[in-house]
Structure formats: C-alpha cells, structure tokens
Design a protein that fits this description.
20% helix, binds cobalt (II) ion, globular, alpha+beta, EC 5.1.99.1, 8 strands, 2,3-Dihydroxybiphenyl 1,2-Dioxygenase, domain 1, 8-stranded mixed β-sheet, binds ligand LP2KCY5N
C-alpha cells in the first residue's frame, strides 16, 4: 500500500538554528528557503538529502499542531514520516477500512498535492503522513 518515502518531518523551535545544522551536514545548496504554510500551522524548510528530504517544521500561530510535540520535546526531534501513494482518496479508504484513525480530511501539503495524517498510536508510535505522489505514481 505505501510507496516511496517522501520526507522525514523534524520539528524545531527555530528553523534558522536547525537549518544551520543541516547546512553544516549537507552543504549550502541542500537547504531551501523557509516559507509559511498558515493552513497547516507551520513554517517549513526543506533540506535535500541524496535519497529523500528532511522537512523542518516550526510552529506558526497559536493553533499549530506541533505545539504539543515541542512542549514534550523542547529540543525538537523526529516528528513524522511521509510516504507517497498514487491516489489519496483510495489510501484514506484503505486506512479507514483497517480501523486506523485518519486525522481530518485530505488537504494540500507543502509539495502542492493532497495529504492526510494517520494517528501515531495506530502506526507503531510513528505519526505518518500520506501524500499523493507529485509524479502521479508511487
Ligand atoms: C508542512 C506541511 C505538511 C507537509 O506537507 O508535509 C506537514 O507535514 S504538517 C506537520 C504538522 N501537522 C500535523 O502533525 C497534523 C497531524 N497531527 C495531529 O493531528 C496531532 O499532532 C496529533 C498527532 C493528533 C497529536 O496531537 P497532540 O495534541 O500534539 O498530542 P496528544 O497528546 O493528543 O497525543 C496523543 C498521543 O500521541 C503521541 N504523539 C503525539 N505526537 C506524536 C508524534 N509526532 N509522534 C509520535 N507520537 C506522537 C503523544 O505523545 C500521545 O501519547 P501518550 O503520551 O502515550 O498518550
Ligand atoms: Co510533512
């Protein structure tokens, strides 16, 4: 059911500080410009690793879904894994059919395609993002 690993989400209280760390690890060219995603309640910065992306996310606004995680993990840390699927609605039905908790309706994510999240307690402790493939495949 799950396809390619698209990105690893890393929560941070400061994208600037984390970006510095990843610039040292991967080089200047790998670290993108941060941008706001108000609909998702996060500020985002992508780091291009050779075989995937690291998605740095910082809380944006009082209702950000990552406030709770950072309260428990003030130094930040690995927040979610994101896998690609060919069809977001078919994937949502599949997870729901397995009795897993899909968190809300699909909405447009940072790559411009629809995403949804599956509750970490139904995924072996890993918050999991499902993303429709930008290439129409997985
Ligand atoms: C950049 C845009 C987009 C993209 O295109 O890539 C993104 O990635 S946005 C990323 C941020 N958005 C989201 O995370 C949306 C989905 N998340 C949620 O709805 C909530 O964060 C949550 C998963 C329901 C957790 O809610 P919260 O209120 O923070 O915590 P709870 O106390 O209710 O948590 C219950 C339980 O789950 C554990 N938990 C929470 N977060 C995680 C996590 N990231 N990884 C693993 N486990 C997590 C939490 O510790 C609780 O466990 P117990 O303490 O054992 O009860
Ligand atoms: Co993500």
């Amino acid at each position: 059911m799950l396809g390619r690993l698209n990105h690893v989400g890393v929560a941070t209280a400061s994208i600037e500080r984390s970006a510095e760390c990843y610039r040292m690890l991967f080089g200047d060219a790998a670290v993108g410009e941060p941008f706001d995603l108000p609909a998702q309640g996060v500020r985002v910065c992508f780091v291009d690793a050779p075989n995937t992306q690291i998605e740095l996310i910082e809380p944006l606004g009082a209702d950000s879904p990552i406030h709770g995680f950072l309260a428990k993990n003030p130094a930040g840390g690995q927040h979610h894994l994101c896998y690609e699927v060919p069809d977001i609605h078919a994937a949502k039905s599949w997870f729901e059919g397995k009795g897993m908790r899909v968190l809300g309706e699909p909405r447009i994510g940072a790559h411009g395609t629809p995403i949804f999240f599956v509750h970490p307690k139904d995924m072996g402790g890993v918050l999991t993002e499902i993303m429709e493939s930008p290439r129409g495949e997985h």
